[in-house]
Amino acid sequence: MKPELVYKIKTDTRLKTVSEKARKLVSSGFNAGDGYSEVWIRDLNTFTDLATKVADKEKLKEALLTFFKFQGKDGNIMDGYTEIKNASSGGVFYYSKLAPEFAAHKNTVETDQETSLIQALYKYVKATGDHSILKEKIDNSTVEELMGKALTFLLEHRFDKKYGLLWGATTADWGDVQPEHDWGVVIDSSSHFAIDIYDNAMFVIALNNYIDLLALENQKKPWLLIKEKIVSNTKKHLWDKKNNKYRTHIYLKDSPFPKDFDENKIYYHGGTAIAIEAGLLNKKQVKQAYEKMKANVKSAGAQTIGLTLFPVYPNGFFKNKGMSEYGYQNGGDWTWFGGRMVQQLIHYELYDEAFEALSPMLDRVLLHKGFYEWWTPAGEPKGSGQFRGSAGVLWSAIEQLNAQSVQE
């Protein structure tokens, strides 16, 4: 790290201020944000590290174990759970005798609930040293066994043998809204199934985490073989060498979009960041990805590399009106993923780029006095005003930058 950057990091008061704000927010609960009553696993996964520092560890442990209490017989994991009094609104709710005070829900278009839980539990164990959670019994099975069951669910129910990769319903990048339905979070007869980089990169990370937690080598070996095949097949089928990017989708049958629409011209920011975390790009490719994201931000007139994707899907391609151009997951700017890309830039020692990318994210938090869920290209805050996922990824990025500056 250059001395000038070390000085900037050590003297930039924004870092400390935003870090303190993040700590305060995450210390106050595990629900996704002030716009959500639910504890969502894909969100909790991104602020577990911070929660181990500022929240009640026993309550955090219980929050993680609650997901296993709702685990399906086939191994599937719910998206989230809420107090049973909140289950009176629309949607399908699931109940468990093991957690009678809660109701759970699942957006079946996703293929990241199982992998998110394993990643979150891994972060909890690594941060706290509490390996005993792996031997906790949930309805006669250990947590370690249930983690394996969750991964097996993906291999048995979300795995395409032709490509050797996971599939889900078609969504925009990492999103949970399919185009064929007014709401779009549940697989139905209109769904189009596809393989994408986000789901498979999340699977690789979860496999790495699970393998690391397993104590015995003979337990690790079959999972290592699975991981190696997923990595190989991801690079073989999803990597677009010509365009130096991961493809948007490989459709198992057909696309929900018009035949004359070239979907692969779209660059997925979120899925690319997760692919980097999974080790699916080298340092040169990471640098190229960042430069492409910067160019996309400029073209979109956006503010940060949290820009979900670019160019966006045209209006009308998603029946859900919230998925209009630059709306929600269709070109909305999410610190929740931009912050994860900053962390990867730090990991690959691209420190100047990391600080550059982080800076406007810090400014937004301070200007609007909150960790908003997402932003329009013009910088208007949208969604939950205190979104813990955004707080968690920013805190982690700040911690990592500070740690590197101390070493210099």
From TrEMBL:
Pfam families: Glyco_hydro_94. It comes from the Bacteria. GO terms for biological process: carbohydrate metabolic process. Keywords: Glycosyltransferase, Transferase. Residues 27-299 form the Glycosyl hydrolase 94 catalytic domain. Coiled coil: none annotated. This is Glycosyl hydrolase 94 catalytic domain-containing protein. It comes from Flavobacterium bomense. The lineage of its organism: Bacteria, Pseudomonadati, Bacteroidota, Flavobacteriia, Flavobacteriales.
